[in-house]
Amino acid sequence: MAQNGYHSNKLAATTPDTQDIINTLPIDSIWVDVKMILEEGSIRPIDPSTTPPEDLQELFGPHEWDQPHLVEGDTDLDGREIAELVFTDLLTTSVSRQAVSFSLHPKSGDTSTDSRIAARLLTNAISPLTNTSSNSHDDSAIDIDTSSSTDINSPPPGPKELSTEGKALWSIISPSVSSAYKKPPKVPTEEHPDYLWEAVVNTNIIPANGMADLHHDAGCVFNTLIEGQKLWIVYPPSSHNHTVLRSIYTQNYDPKHTVIFREFKKFENGIVFLQHKGETIWLPPYCPHAVFTIHDSVLTGGQWHGKRKFPQRLRYAILDLELNRDSTYLNYWADELDKLIHSLEQVLATPNPALHKEFLVAWDTILANGDFDALLLGEQVKKKTKGKGGGKNDRKEQFKKAWIAGTKDWFQCPVCDVRWEKGSKRKWFQSHFEEKHWLKEKGSKSRRDEA
Q1: At residue 244, what are phi and psi to the nearest 5 degrees?
Q2: Which of 286, 292, 248, 257 is nearest to 272 (CA)?
Q3: Which residue ranges form the domains of the chain, and what is each CATH number?
Q4: N-terminal to C-terminal alpha carbon distance within the chain
Q5: What are the Cα distances from residue 201, in Å, to 89, 94, 108, 224?
Q6: pLDDT tens string 425-441
Q7: Range 57-82 burial, b when 16+ CB lie within 10 A, else e
Q8: Could you give the CA distance from residue 139 to residue 258 in angstroms, rounded to a whole number?
Q9: Fewest beta carbons less than 10 Å away: which of 88, 93, 254, 292?
Q10: 223: helix, strand or coil
């Protein structure tokens, strides 16, 4: 592997052809519309194993972490072992039930039924999964033959509502899978100076014709395809694409309806590539993307968060809030605000003036456009944790205290180009911050915007 993390540090000898990708796709079900995206959308094929051309580096960012690509990362796992490890955790009394979780989509509305369907999907991963064709056009549009997953010792097939058609098993969290999965060498450890935090390893089991509809991720994603084949459509994290994505999220975004087939013409400068069994994809934060399952798949990976990307994390945290506006998002968002405050403290403690400037610019931006107030209002109820309180004003004070504590030794504002002068009070930047980079008494803009 090349030093920069790509399988090859050379430009592709030949540019991949859209028609070549189209020729690999099935001819029915969702694939008619996928082909329409490739032919009519603002999108071009790439080879993710090679260094991207300069124009794509400008669109996604100059650093390797900014660009979608294949990374080195071997795995000995297969679909059968993944399922066996999950079952092992579920059957081991020493493993907390809270340590093993999953999400079935779409749900049937009955917990018992959903659990049995999830068990069938796990069983099918051992079978292995069996492809069938369908002309259905659901968001997850998944069709599998479950008849081969039973034997003479199994109970008779359940009622019709236990069908796995159109179902997928998402975000399976299993301690045994986490231990067995080998993360790519490029994923930094806790000792890396840029490390903030890392999400727990999780697995998706998605039969053929399934998809993950248009969305974004807040961290650097690394996903290893244990089984199957997938097609990725990825758009750069531009202001235009974020505006379109936020509009989609705020207009009654419903993952039960395929968004990308309706909205793809609004996005710009997309790329498309195939992921094969055994390959690991690195995807940078805040890139709108959709993923289509060509062959039954088992995908395992995680998310990594670093200080260098935190200004972007702060700037676009409003997208995370909009994406997660569902019945559970209040609890989710309380945890996210905790992470934002903790990450803020760590970034301010980093001796990196360039990062401080980028971060303060992002901070000023969310104040100026009202996003900071929106982030605080995302937590509508008092938070019942850790004695911190959780009202809007409590959270605002936590952010302010983090800023004041983290900048107590600053003698220059990296944005305003003013310095502490001899004879001024020691905590000069704290006064400057409150005057130029904090909220006014009313409204959501900082005093700096009045100048």
Answers
A1: -65, -45
A2: 292
A3: 1-151+167-303 (2.60.120.10), 326-450 (no CATH)
A4: 52
A5: 15, 20, 26, 11
A6: 657 788 889 889 998 65
A7: eebbbeebbbbbbbbebebebbbebb
A8: 5
A9: 93
A10: strand
